[in-house]
Amino acid sequence: MGPQDDGRRSARFDINKIAHSFPDTADTLLLDTYLTYAAAASARVFRVYRETPPHYHATCDEYLYVLSGRGAFWMERPENGGEFAPGQLLFFRRGTVHAFPSIKEAPVVFLSVDTPRRDPRDIIFVNPADGTPETFIRAKAGPVRNPSRPAGRYRRAPRISRGSRLCPCRGSRDDFLQQLPASQTAIAGSSSSPDLVFLPADRLETR
Length: 207
Description:
Radius of gyration: 20 Å
Order of helices and strands: HEEEEEEEEHEEHHEE
Number of strands: 12
Low-confidence stretches: 142-170, 180-207
Distance between the termini: 25 Å
Helix content: 10-25%
């Protein structure tokens, strides 16, 4: 399942903790974790594991803030290359070719703001033989979020009377109600005090 807009109006993230949570190795060029995914913009933290060939994104502008690591990065053409370091901000518009020709100090981790939000499959290599969206990036397991409120598919489910049959479901409250037997839908849909939560392992658990 890809990133989803969970409708939150505000959130708080421990960027330093997220940046240190990436594994030491990956089978893709990058790993990322989405923090927000609203239509107007998305925010992510991602780690670069190896040199990245020239590519561009067709649907969004990118603002990359360097959290850690050093290396070479160019935008538009190799002659525009230079070294990046923590504290620097890199910006390029959609359709701008860019590349990481070398990593000099790891881990290389960025905070990215994409406008509008970035589809995870929006990656076009100048040389198609250099890779695919699947080899370029994938989501890091176990995103670190503000524990005060679950997000994405970790949604509260409605209260159901004791003894009711629970139907595990990934998705929204409406998805959940559609899977309930008709005799239980009215009970589940009428409650204003939920005490069940969705869990990512396709199971439900009472609080």
